[in-house]
Amino acid sequence: MRADNSQHIVDAARRRSEYTRSRAIQALRELDAAGEPVTFEAVAKRAPVSRSWLYGQPDLRTEVERLRALHRRAPSDQLPAGQRASEASLLRRLEAANSRVRQLAEENRRLRAQLARVLGDQRADRMTTDRVRGHGGDHRRARTTPARALKGS
After folding, report:
1. In this structure, are residues 42 and 81 in contact, taking their beta carbons and an 8 Å threshold?
2. Which residues in 44-83 are b (16+ Cβ under 10 Å) and which e?
3. Is the pTM of this model over 0.70?
4. Which of 31, 67, 93, 122 is exposed most, by the fewest CB atoms within 10 A?
5. Taking Cα atoms as reference points, which of 112, 119, 125, 126 lies closest to residue 148?
6. CA gap 72, 131 in Å, rounded
7. Contact yes or no for 44/23 (Cβ under 8 A)
8. What is the 3-state secondary structure (H, E, C) of the chain?
């Protein structure tokens, strides 16, 4: 007759349940401490547990709902007032970004024009060379690439 090992299975299930609960509680604490939104999905991903399991745990469900409501009520309280950027500071950053965009657009325009000149020069050289040689174009000969031509200018 076999020995009754069911107590070992029950103990293992209890330990697994306790471990799962501890992961979910830790995920709640981490999300709250980081100021991140506390949602069932966020806790489930961080823990990792299923959302349906979270909904089935009355105390964890209550805590998620409490923290979720708390974060919804006070979104501006996530950063202390001294660490929030002022409107003037944000405007200066926006002006700097716009200035940089204008600089890059001008540089891009200049480089496109330079590339067009180089490609046009290459085409003209190729056409001149083909006329001098008296044939319709030898595509096997070595050519200067646009990158090489740009380096030389």
Report:
1. no
2. bebbebeeebbeebeebeebbeebbeebeeeeeeeeeeee
3. no
4. 93
5. 119
6. 76
7. no
8. CCCCCHHHHHHHHHHHHHHHHHHHHHHHHHHHHHCCCCCHHHHHHHCCCCHHHHHCCHHHHHHHHHHHHHHHHCHHHHCCHHHCCCHHHHHHHHHHHHHHHHHHHHHHHHHHHHHHHHHHHHHHHHHHHHHHHCCCCCCCCCCCCHHHHHHHC
The amino acid at residue 147 is: A
Rg of the chain, C-alpha, whole Å: 34
Question: pLDDT for 88-135, tens place per residue?
Answer: 888 999 999 999 999 999 999 999 999 999 999 999 999 888 888 876
